[in-house]
Design goal:
The protein is of the alpha/beta class. 45% of the residues lie in helices and 14% in strands. The chain has a 6-stranded parallel beta sheet, sandwiched between helices.
Length: 257
């Protein structure tokens, strides 16, 4: 459970305090997933190239990780690069792949000291070798950390994830490793990229768009959603705190009364 004194030191602004007073420490969501949208629009509004928006978004990631640690969130998943993002201009994609490597090299020591475990979900094949290896190193270096699991959805698509899970189960059934009659929801979940992780309690989307964009389609079946018009580079600790408090105001019924 998070420490109230530490929270008050971290969320120290007047607007933070108003929400912090309402925060129930025992009901912080275990898993928060974020669709980080708006980097390109942030840059365009300032007459900057799109990659400048992606670079500005790094600060928001750093602050959100710190806020998640303070709040006692167990898992933070971010939609970093979708399987559809390859359709973007080649120079933007190339810059993004280089940026991933650059940020990992800059942040790994800090993340490791903070007790953050890095996990990557998505298809590794197709990624530039340098990018794939940088994430693999991050996973190896932080494998024993347990304060926060930071999940990076990279070359990720929700439909593709489900198709891959179905294919893996089908192969096992065809080779006699399992009885098809025993296939259930738990088995499917165990074959998803997120196997072993709890489903998101809270899904956040920035930039005001009202869609899930092929993100964690299986896992968000009963997630609470919180949408903000704030563009991702402007997202900060206050926004995460506000989202968590709003989540706590809701009654989760999971299809019941």
């Amino acid at each position: 459970m998070p420490d109230r004194a530490s929270l008050e030191a971290f969320f120290s602004s007047k607007r933070d305090r108003e929400f912090l007073a309402e925060l129930a420490l025992e009901r912080v969501p275990r898993h928060v997933a974020i669709i980080m949208d708006g980097n390109g629009r942030w840059a365009t509004k300032r007459g900057l190239p799109r990659i400048a928006g992606h670079r500005a978004g790094v600060k928001a990631i750093r602050e959100t990780i710190q806020a998640a640690l303070e709040l006692g969130i167990d898992v933070l998943t971010v939609y970093s690069f979708s399987s559809e993002n390859w359709r973007r201009p080649k120079d933007e994609v190339s810059h993004l792949m280089d940026l991933f490597v650059e940020v990992l090299e800059q942040e790994m020591t800090t993340l490791d000291k903070l007790g953050v475990r890095v996990r990557v979900i998505g298809r590794r094949e197709g990624l530039p070798e340098r990018t794939a290896e940088a994430f693999a190193r991050a996973e190896r270096q932080t494998a024993d950390n347990d304060r926060l699991t930071y999940v990076v959805a990279l070359n990720y698509g929700g439909r593709q994830e489900i198709a891959d899970a179905v294919r893996a189960i089908a192969v096992k059934a065809a080779t006699g490793q399992l009885d098809p009659s025993g296939i259930d929801l738990e088995m499917v979940a165990d074959h998803l990229y997120t196997a072993g992780l709890p489903d998101p309690d809270l899904l956040i989307r920035t930039s005001g768009e009202l869609r899930v964009s092929n993100f964690l389609l299986w896992q968000i079946a009963y997630s609470e959603m919180w949408v903000t018009s704030t563009l991702w580079p402007d997202f900060d600790r206050h926004d995460l705190l506000k989202a968590v408090v709003d989540y706590q105001r809701r009654s989760r019924r999971f299809g019941g009364l």
